[in-house]
Design a protein that fits this description.
heterodimer; A: alpha+beta; 2 helices; 21% strand; B: 238 residues; 11% strand; globular
Chain lengths: 108, 238
């Protein structure tokens, strides 16, 4: 049975190349979910900067950066069908001792 | 002095006699018992290739049969079977918990300690059993794990945790995202079984939703949590 699913997975692997159309509603939803994601770490809401360039693979639908307090957290959001953009993951570049992919603005 | 783990000829004949019985008995429940006995005998000799071959060749096909005839015994058999499979995956290098040998009380004590620290030891690959525990008792707290243990792989424009050599990596993490310039490093993710609306032709999306449904059934109620990946010294034994 597992082999069957595995073969099916491989066979259908080449069938997913459609580009989604991004709408303002999707961006709103993605930003909200990215904010909630950071809120769980006790970070303040509404501070996310949207990036047109993506720094992760697979290429996400949305990339945001949280740059407050010397942090550089990349938050990526993936959307599925409809306008639900709730697949969120993040990468804290500063915690890993890496250079931030976008310049950190001095907020003083 | 002979290796205590190797199979002596008398042990091998005991195992074979159990196996013979398992395939010859007509009474269904007896088959399950003999299957269980054979598994137990093999478990005691888990490091030998003979035991592995015997399991692969003679026992795996009997799982369904055992399931039909005696459900309670089947669970024992399946546990042993999984233990053996885990041990084989580790190629004899497993710790007890990775091989599934750990008793419930030991496991709970270890997990409580892990929860107190907030991270898994460095070099430790998270198991499905551990994430299940964290889902139930972790209060939604973040769990830090060694990111170097995860091997991402590409499949159909998505990145997933490679199921080789540990299937648990895929079961626990599923799809991932990772750095474009640093592709061996994966992003922090959540363990939440979130259902996604997917397009009708999104096969992987449907598979993901189906597996999530199964996982919810298996796990029961719990609290979503973040899995964070460490590439430094967190979790290193001092």
């Amino acid at each position: 049975m597992r082999l069957f699913f595995f073969v099916l997975l491989i066979l259908t692997a080449g069938c997913e190349n459609q580009k989604k159309e991004i709408t303002p509603e999707m961006e709103k939803n993605a930003r909200k979910n990215a904010d909630l994601w950071l809120q769980r770490d006790g970070l303040s809401l509404g501070k996310l900067l949207s990036s047109t360039e993506h720094f992760s693979i697979p290429e996400p639908d949305f990339t945001f950066f949280y740059l407050e307090g010397g942090r550089c957290i990349e938050v990526v959001v993936q959307c599925y069908a409809g306008t639900k953009c709730s697949e969120v993951s993040s990468y804290p570049h500063h915690e890993h001792g890496e250079k931030c992919p976008i310049p950190i603005v001095n907020n003083k | 002095m002979a290796d205590s783990r190797s199979i002596t000829s008398s042990k091998a004949s005991t195992i074979n006699s159990h196996l013979e019985k398992a395939s010859s008995f007509k009474k269904p429940s007896q088959k399950a018992v003999d299957y269980f006995n054979a598994q137990s005998a093999l478990k005691k000799n888990h490091s030998t290739s003979l035991a592995r071959d015997a399991i692969a060749n003679k026992l795996s096909g009997k799982k369904q049969e055992a399931k039909q005839v005696d459900k309670s015994k089947y669970n024992d058999v399946l546990r042993d079977y999984n233990t053996q499979a885990a041990q084989n995956n580790c190629k004899g290098q497993c710790h007890g918990y990775e091989a599934g040998f750990e008793e419930e009380t030991e496991f709970n004590t270890r997990m409580q300690k892990m929860h107190k620290l907030g991270y898994a030891p460095k070099g430790h690959a998270l198991t499905y059993r551990e994430t299940n525990w964290w889902w139930k008792f972790g209060n939604g707290d973040d769990l830090w794990v060694d990111g170097n243990m995860i091997k991402p792989m590409e499949l159909s424009n998505r990145t997933i945790a490679s199921p080789f050599p540990r299937l648990d990596d895929l079961k626990v993490l599923g799809s991932l995202s990772r750095g474009r310039d640093n592709p061996e490093r994966v992003h922090d993710d959540s363990y939440d079984f979130d259902h996604q609306n997917v397009a009708w032709d999104d096969f992987l999306g449907h598979t993901r939703n189906f597996l999530n449904k199964q996982a919810i059934k298996e796990h029961g109620s719990g609290t979503p949590f973040k899995i964070k990946f460490d590439y430094g010294d967190r979790g290193k034994v001092q």
